[in-house]
Write a structure and sequence with these properties.
Layout: E1 7-13, H1 19-31, E2 35-40, E3 45-50, H2 58-62, E4 67-72, E5 91-93, E6 96-98, E7 104-108, H3 115-128, E8 132-134, H4 152-165, E9 168-172, H5 179-185, E10 188-191, H6 199-207, E11 212-215, H7 222-234, E12 240-244, H8 262-269, E13 274-276, H9 278-282, H10 285-297, E14 302-306, H11 324-340
Parallel strand pairs: 7-8, 7-14, 8-9, 9-10, 10-11, 11-12, 12-13, 13-14
Antiparallel strand pairs: 1-3, 1-4, 2-3, 5-6
Helix pairs in contact: 3-4, 3-11, 6-7, 10-11
The structure holds phosphoenolpyruvate and manganese (II) ion.
């Protein structure tokens, strides 16, 4: 990983900060092993922090009395950073582009179940405007006794659905050993939340040239998420799509807590496209539509949604799956929000 020396943060003190407050901040900085340089302006004082303690978030310093704002001046990630590349990265997914004006919607069942199921859903979501078909063939399940996916057979069904509809195929990859197999069938590789910090897998998808959807670890901070993206980028694959899919909190009314505020923050920090998964992010069918609209309103470049023709019979994630009819309606309503924020769908 890149290693930066020198100052990494500026702590701007309030004009009213007194000597005691400044000394206290200096003491705190030194406590974590960094050095300080005090810069005295006419109106206020600024403390430059020298060292390499990037794991302490700026908010920590913001809460110390007398501090107006702690401003990081170098980010821990490099290739992913807007400091390095200002323009948005646009990623080609077959005939479509993700990360431009048009919002890209990826839809399909949680798991591939059989050829008819996947073909039917593919046709319906394509007709409603999806740019790609999702479907798991290798499923990362909490219990070893749950349905684990159809494996290669599932990949074959997905490839047939692509033949029938022309939709690009997105599927999850669980292990570096599967890279060759999975990438020979599909167009986009998905790294799931449970594997966001599987660095060997990140390296393997980084060495492959297929676009990668990197889902945020369910307990990952923004920096950890972006650094996982940086792993893929630093191994040579520039086609990284970040996906917010909800994090674990104390809240139980939803399956996860969909952290939409990360979207505009990521937009500020990185040039990579960001999509949102309101299906896993809420776990609740009725919340998928409002959170999809919310995601677009806050600047997401795309959505990934679970759609099933008979959610009650779905092998996996039925409670959060919407029907093809719901999906058609969602595309209309989300389209109105997209246009309101200067995008298309
Ligand atoms: C999925 O997309 O089906 C999935 C398992 O997602 P996540 O990794 O976000 O749980
Ligand atoms: Mn699922």
């Amino acid at each position: 990983m890149p290693h930066y020396g020198g100052a990494f943060m500026i702590i701007v003190m309030k004009p009213t900060a007194d000597k005691g407050e400044i000394d206290h901040v200096v003491e705190k900085v030194e406590e974590v092993g960094c050095k300080t340089i005090l810069l005295e302006g006419t109106n206020r004082k600024v403390i430059a922090v020298i060292g390499d303690k990037r794991d302490i978030p700026p908010e920590y310093w913001d809460s110390i009395p007398g501090v107006e704002k702690a401003v990081p001046i170098l980010t821990p990630y490099k290739i992913a950073s807007r400091e390095v590349k200002k323009a948005d990265t646009e990623i080609k997914i077959n005939d479509h582009v993700l990360g431009g004006k048009k919002i890209g919607v990826i839809a399909g069942p949680c798991a591939v179940e059989d050829q008819d199921q996947i073909n039917y859903i593919a046709e319906r979501v394509k007709k409603a405007g999806a740019i790609a078909l999702r479907g798991g063939a290798f499923k990362p399940r909490t219990s070893p006794y749950s349905f684990q996916g159809l494996g290669e057979k599932g990949l074959e069904y997905l490839a047939k659905a692509r033949e029938a509809t022309g939709l690009a195929i997105v599927t999850e990859i669980l292990s570096p050993e599967h890279i060759e197999l999975v990438s020979s069938y599909v167009d986009v590789l998905q790294v799931g939340t449970r594997n966001m910090a599987n660095f060997l897998l990140l390296q393997a998808v980084g060495e492959c040239k297929k676009p990668v959807i990197l889902k945020r670890g369910m307990s990952a901070t923004l920096d950890e998420f972006l650094l996982a993206g940086e792993y893929i980028l630093s191994h040579g694959n520039p086609n990284v799509i970040l996906c917010e899919r909800g994090i674990r909190t104390f809240e139980t009314h939803t399956r996860f807590t969909l952290s939409l505020s990360i979207v505009p923050e990521l937009k500020r920090l990185t040039h990579l496209p960001i999509i949102v998964d309101p299906s896993h992010g809420t776990g609740v069918r009725d919340l998928v539509l409002p959170m999809s609209k919310g995601a677009i309103a806050v600047g997401a470049d795309g959505l990934i949604l679970e759609v099933h023709q008979d959610p009650e019979k779905s092998y996996v994630d039925g409670p959060q799956s919407i029907t093809p009819e719901d999906f058609e309606n969602l595309m209309k309503e989300a389209g109105a929000v997209a246009r309101a924020v200067g995008r298309d769908i």
